[in-house]
Amino acid sequence: MTFKKVMMAIMLYIMAFSLVPYAAQAAEPAACAAKTSVKKTYINVSVATLWKEPGTKRQMDQHVLSTPVNMKAWTSKMSTVKDRLWLTGKAETQALYGQEVTVLKTSGSWVQVAVKDQSTPKNSKGYPGWLPKAQVTAQPAAYEACQTAGVKAKTAVLFHDKTTPFMEVSFNTELPIIKSETNWVQVMTPANGAKWLKKSDIRILAAAAVIPKPTGTALLTTGKQFLGLPYLWSGVSAYGYDCSGFTSSVYRYHGISIPRDASEQAKKGKAVAKSSLKPGDLLFFAYNNGKGRVHHVAMYAGNGKMIHSPKAGKRVEIISMNTSPYKQEYAGARRYID
Fold first, then answer.
1. Secretion signal: which residues (predicted)?
2. Each residue's pLDDT tens digit in the chain (338 positions)?
3. Closest Cα to residue 336, out of 299, 281, 272, 294?
4. Which pTM was predicted?
5. Which active-site residues does the annotation give?
């Protein structure tokens, strides 16, 4: 073979490898990754909506039954209060990209899972609900010793190569870090290989993170970034919260695990007298003038005010505790921090 032909062959070889798509390019093995045969199941869409029953939903719900999901399109399609009220009793909760779940049952193309870090008396393994099988993935639990990128922005974009967007993810999404640079971190996704996040959108948490206990002011500051966000039944993401999804998500960001539902949040923590309230305390409201079943939770914002995600048709807001019907339905407060 002539020198010219050898050089041509080398050039063709280099070009062939440069054209391999992102997904086919394997990331360098992370130092924190462990060889393991143990598989766990993870959410494989930006926000998965878990339903009370498997099966057909409304046409507009196809945006969150597909893979990937489109949360912005879904929430914008629900343009009336009636559209959002329809979810009550039909949707159960949501889970974020990369969250671990336990499979409970399967039914055709649907699977019932329990969200590990959403505690509830409904199931000891976590909050249960149905979602399409394609929205979960079983993968080796190889990156549990890695540092974690926790999204602190309302939403953040995962990039293939620091230029090409792959997926938008929500506040509180956590993914293992396999490489850190000055302005970027490379993270491992559940089933789509290595991607990049801007450091300005995340905080870096140690493996088995011990997050310092927050002040009430810090909890309040975190909650305030969602002022104006429309209420969403079952919501636990920056695309919409229900009342207890809002409070549990704020606390989760600060490393404090509290029950998923308002009625259960009201049973934990430490009881606080109304005269001793501090910012960050949780306020509960019940039917029958505060004597019946707890149906709502808010966070104390200081100066007799509260921040909450009220109900379908409303938005996250700060209002006086003396606003009707909350004044009449006040049922006590609980403190989860010292």
1. 1-26
2. 444 443 444 444 433 333 333 333 344 557 899 999 999 999 999 999 999 999 999 999 999 999 999 999 999 999 999 999 999 999 999 999 999 999 999 999 999 999 999 999 999 999 999 999 999 999 999 999 999 999 999 999 999 999 999 999 999 999 999 999 999 999 999 999 999 999 999 999 987 667 889 999 999 999 999 999 999 999 999 999 999 999 999 999 999 999 999 999 999 999 999 999 999 999 999 999 999 999 999 999 999 999 999 999 999 999 999 999 999 999 999 999 97
3. 281
4. 0.90
5. 243, 296, 308
Domain range enclosing 271: 216-335
Hey, is 40 helix, strand or coil? strand
In 10 A of CB 63, how many CB atoms?
19
Within-domain flag for 49:
yes
Alpha helices in the chain (DSSP H): 3-18, 62-65, 71-77, 81-85, 216-224, 243-253, 262-265, 287-290, 326-329
Instruction: Provide the number of structural domains found in the chain.
Output: 3
Co-location of 243 and 311 in the same domain: yes
| Residues 185, 242 within the same domain | no
Helices (H), 56-203: 62-65, 71-77, 81-85
- Domain boundary, last residue among 115, 140, 165: 140
Burial class (CB in 10 A: 0-12, 13-18, 19+), 225: middle
Buried b (16+ CB within 10 A) or exposed e, 249-281: bbbbbbebebbbbbbbbbeebeebeeeebebbb
Q: Strand, helix or coil at 94?
A: strand
